[in-house]
């Protein structure tokens, strides 16, 4: 045991003393783009407005479900939560986690602020008082495996791990796979031991859990272009003056751009690194149309928000 | 300021014998009530979410497993096997005591269950055979700490859940430190009894040994089911814990040791321990939420960095803090409160999360033997009907080398990191 | 509150807690069986096991209050005489009653507020889950008050440090 830390590095940036400070909480690690790109982007945009945010990462203040309850009760100012968790308050909100709802990041960026999506947020607000201020790109999910997966037929018979949430199971099911729910911590050893054959995650997650070491192929299925929402309530927004409100709106726009840039470049860099070290083969021959067609056909009949799903897919 | 008031309130309430769970709840509730922005609903939400957790489910399962193992007679068989092999050595029952605890540790996750079981059976036996009473108490108390270091381990589950680490990795972290503890205990037994050549039994014949070993062998099955299941990636720790319970239950049936009333007593015992542990878990979740909201982790980091920038000094300071807290608080509660605050600081100082976990767990376990509030001291005193000071006197000579183990764990990272690294669990 | 009612209630809590423990065990085993033996896992076992654990925790919290099994620190009490000890222990019980009372009321409100929410896998109303907190803390209030009253009537029964530790270790 030796060494010394750099005190400069460990010091935290201090907010202006007279600023109106809002608590901003999420479940991601301190080194996740939500914290490293999103939070500074908001703080920068708010600079000089007399408003700032104080971030609580790593589920310090609770799980996604709990953070939303806290925002709803007024105990927390701003929460980051995904569509499935918003879906608990207003069914239609979960639609954004539906498989193949967007083709890629570009389409996601064009569609995420469209009228159909804005209508969902309006419905959520009416039902619960929860206000979605913006959506941050979270990553695109791909399937990793030990045999190439190009078509729904290739997926058949593979035991594929998903997070333990019904919609993830349904997504994989409609793609033609057999989903097994499991905690993320256990996936590495389960793949190593052959308890499961495949798994699906965004590239940064695959990288940080080193799943490229225990799988042969990353198949660019891109079956789920995911986002997380920045959620607040009138209790917070009503405290802002008009000028502060426009600074806040500006912060919402610039932060969404900043997070998307961070995550997209992280995805590209990781893929590039894998291409170079050969730790996992990148399979770009996936017949995404075949998967998309099958999912877009079957999914609407198996979820309560099938209509909204069709509206978004057709509108985009 | 708020933080200081809360910690003082916690200590005062503890002193006034308010149960640990409520000593955590009361200042937290006051905080929630005094902040106009926070509703009491959050207090309810956080206490409930503390126990609404799949990994925590392993806690009642492992408590049940240990109690069932005792009721099934498997512990007696481990003891008989240890006597058969070690009976003829000078001070044999001292080593037997350590060996039985080691064998039992693969089925038990808590020191108190070990101390109660061994204290009831082995201490009277040792005293009857002429072993000094403080020695009998000391070796039993000290060796009870093996149980929570070897998997399954309830402190390890709590730590994993609190710090967001893998339970499997944390299970493995304790194995080498536990082996060092066994060596330290045996050395102490040897030193204390080096002049007592009268304390040895008959040498046992090999056929007798083989028979005793065979009878104790099914105990190994529990370790295989639990550890094999988790490390093989076959099952989650919670699933493995339930399979372990099933295994020991079937074993008890095979041994014809279980009557309905004995089974019900075992279940009630398990419910009682579970109830007192889980309410602390629930309360600590709320207390921890308040600490996080008041930025205690960040403040702790800043304070620590003002004090020192050297990792070695940080580790010494942390050990002193843990030792003081461990002397007053039971390990589960201490882990739930301290880990969210200290683990991020340790990371700032470049300490590996699993290494830090080992330091925290081993240090807090020593607290079980440290006055004024060492639970193992009280438990041993009550099951053996010996006064607490006698137990303390007996534990003291063992303490020295146990602190040595803690220092090794603290300053030689490979002691805790070697095995998880070899198994690919160190991340 | 009659003695017989009180003992009966405690016996019911003990029995219910035991049933919950066995049920928790059974549900986890069912998960293992369907996942590893049948290869076709049920989606609701994990959630149900967690909810059973919540109920187990809070029913047992009530029971442990009645049997004075909650872990406490006997630092001061061991040095006090019987009478002073009884006073301190009674204060501790009153503090427990006040805190648990607040949580029982807040818990009931919290459960009532969540009537619209359903658990994703089992479809159980979240009010059923959150109700465990309200009930558990209400039981704690009942038994904590019982302990305080008992202390005033029979100070000689206040458990000392050794007795409470014995029961923890039992
Ligand atoms: Na022992
Ligand atoms: Na153990």
Automatic annotation (TrEMBL), chain B:
Keywords: Cell inner membrane, Cell membrane, Membrane, Transmembrane, Transmembrane helix
Main location: membrane
Domain TRAP C4-dicarboxylate transport system permease DctM subunit: 7-414
Entry keyword annotation includes Glycoprotein: no
Signal peptide positions on this chain: none
Locations listed in the record: Cell inner membrane
Spans traversing the lipid bilayer: 47-66, 135-161, 167-193, 213-234, 240-258, 270-292, 312-342, 354-378, 398-419
Membrane topology: Multi-pass membrane protein
One of the Pfam families matching this protein, by short name: DctM
Domain of life from the UniProt record: Bacteria
Protein name listed in UniProt: TRAP transporter large permease
From TrEMBL, chain C:
Mode of membrane association: Multi-pass membrane protein
InterPro entries in UniProt: DctQ, TRAP_DctQ
This protein's UniProt keywords: Cell inner membrane, Cell membrane, Membrane, Transmembrane, Transmembrane helix, Transport
Transmembrane segments: 12-33, 48-66, 87-112, 124-145
Residue ranges annotated for the Tripartite ATP-independent periplasmic transporters DctQ component domain, each copy included: 26-153
Record's signal peptide: none
Annotated compartments: Cell inner membrane
Family: Belongs to the TRAP transporter small permease family.
Name of this chain's protein: TRAP transporter small permease
């Amino acid at each position: 045991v030796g060494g010394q830390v750099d005190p400069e590095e460990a010091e935290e940036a201090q907010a202006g003393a007279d600023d109106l400070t809002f608590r901003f909480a999420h479940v991601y690690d301190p080194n996740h783009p939500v914290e490293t790109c999103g939070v500074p982007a908001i703080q920068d945009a708010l600079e000089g407005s007399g408003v700032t945010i104080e971030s609580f990462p790593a589920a310090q203040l609770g799980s996604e479900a709990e953070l939303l309850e806290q925002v709803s009760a007024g105990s927390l100012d701003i929460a980051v939560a995904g569509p499935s968790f918003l879906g608990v308050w207003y069914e239609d909100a979960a639609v954004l986690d539906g498989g193949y709802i967007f083709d890629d990041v570009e389409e996601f960026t064009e569609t995420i602020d469209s009228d159909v999506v804005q209508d969902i947020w309006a419905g959520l607000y009416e039902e619960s008082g929860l206000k979605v201020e913006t959506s941050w790109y979270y990553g695109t999910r791909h399937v990793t495996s030990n045999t190439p997966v190009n078509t729904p037929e290739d997926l058949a018979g593979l035991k594929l791990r998903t997070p333990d949430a019904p919609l993830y199971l349904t997504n994989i099911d409609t793609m033609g796979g057999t989903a097994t729910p499991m905690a993320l911590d256990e996936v590495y050893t389960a793949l190593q031991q052959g308890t499961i054959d495949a798994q699906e995650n965004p590239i940064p997650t695959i990288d940080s859990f080193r799943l490229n070491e225990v799988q042969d192929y990353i198949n660019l299925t891109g079956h789920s272009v995911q986002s997380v929402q920045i959620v607040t309530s009138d209790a917070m927004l009503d405290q802002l003056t008009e000028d502060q409100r426009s600074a806040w709106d500006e912060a919402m726009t610039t932060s969404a751009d900043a997070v998307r840039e961070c995550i997209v470049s992280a995805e590209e860099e990781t893929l590039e690194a894998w291409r170079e070290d050969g730790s996992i083969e990148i399979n770009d021959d996936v017949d995404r149309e075949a998967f998309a067609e099958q999912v877009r056909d079957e999914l609407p009949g198996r979820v309560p928000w099938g209509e909204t799903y069709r509206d978004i897919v057709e509108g985009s | 300021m708020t933080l200081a008031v809360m910690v003082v309130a916690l200590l005062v309430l503890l002193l006034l014998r308010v149960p640990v769970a409520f000593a955590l709840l009361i200042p937290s509730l006051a905080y929630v009530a005094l902040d106009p922005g926070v509703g009491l609903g959050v207090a309810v939400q956080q206490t409930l979410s503390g126990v609404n957790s799949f990994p925590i489910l392993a806690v009642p399962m492992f408590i049940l497993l240990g109690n069932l193992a005792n009721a099934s007679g498997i512990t007696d068989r481990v003891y008989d096997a240890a006597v058969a092999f070690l009976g003829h050595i000078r001070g044999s029952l001292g080593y037997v005591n350590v060996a039985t605890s080691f064998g039992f540790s693969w089925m038990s996750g808590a020191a108190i269950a070990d101390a109660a079981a061994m204290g009831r059976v082995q201490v009277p036996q040792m005293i009857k055979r002429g072993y000094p009473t403080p020695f009998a108490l000391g070796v039993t108390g000290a060796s009870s700490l093996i149980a929570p270091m070897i998997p399954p381990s309830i402190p390890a589950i709590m730590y994993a859940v609190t710090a967001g680490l893998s339970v499997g990795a944390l299970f493995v972290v304790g194995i080498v430190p536990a082996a060092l503890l066994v060596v330290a205990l045996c050395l102490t037994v040897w030193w204390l009894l080096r002049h007592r050549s009268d304390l040895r039994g008959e040498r046992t014949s090999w056929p007798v040994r083989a028979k005793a070993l065979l009878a104790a062998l099914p105990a190994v099955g529990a370790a295989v089911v639990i550890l094999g299941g988790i490390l093989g990636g076959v099952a989650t720790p919670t699933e493995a814990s339930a399979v372990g319970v099933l295994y020991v239950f079937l074993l008890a049936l095979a041994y014809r040791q279980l009557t309905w009333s004995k089974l019900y007593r075992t279940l009630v015992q398990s419910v009682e321990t579970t109830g007192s542990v889980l309410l602390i878990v629930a309360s600590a979740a709320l207390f921890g939420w308040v600490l996080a909201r008041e930025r205690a982790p960040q403040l702790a980091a800043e304070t620590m960095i003002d004090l020192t920038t050297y990792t070695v000094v940080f580790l010494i300071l942390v050990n002193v803090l843990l030792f003081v807290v461990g002397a007053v608080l039971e390990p589960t509660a201490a882990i739930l409160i301290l880990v969210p605050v200290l683990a991020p600081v340790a990371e700032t100082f470049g300490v590996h999360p699993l290494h830090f976990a080992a330091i925290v767990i081993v240090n807090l376990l020593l607290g079980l033997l440290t006055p004024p509030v060492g639970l193992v001291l009280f438990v041993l005193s009550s099951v053996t009907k010996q006064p607490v000071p006698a137990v303390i006197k007996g534990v003291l000579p063992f303490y020295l080398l146990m602190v040595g183990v803690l220092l090794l764990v603290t300053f030689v990272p490979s002691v805790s990191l070697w095995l998880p690294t070899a198994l690919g669990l160190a991340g | 509150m009659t003695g017989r009612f009180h003992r009966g209630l405690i016996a019911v809590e003990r029995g219910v807690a035991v049933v919950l423990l066995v049920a928790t065990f059974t549900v986890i085993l069912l998960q293992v069986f369907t996942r590893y033996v049948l290869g076709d896992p049920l989606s609701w076992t994990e959630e149900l096991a967690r909810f059973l654990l919540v109920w187990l925790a809070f029913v047992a919290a009530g029971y442990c209050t009645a049997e004075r099994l909650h872990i406490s620190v006997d630092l001061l009490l061991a040095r006090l005489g019987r009478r002073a000890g009884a006073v301190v222990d009674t204060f501790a019980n009153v503090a427990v009653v006040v805190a648990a009372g607040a949580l029982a009321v807040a818990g009931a409100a919290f459960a009532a507020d969540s009537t619209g929410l359903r658990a994703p896998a089992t479809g159980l109303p979240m009010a059923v889950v959150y109700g465990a907190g309200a009930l558990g803390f209400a039981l704690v209030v009942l038994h904590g008050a019982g302990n305080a009253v008992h202390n005033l009537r029979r100070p000689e029964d206040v458990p000392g440090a050794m007795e409470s530790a014995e029961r923890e270790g039992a």
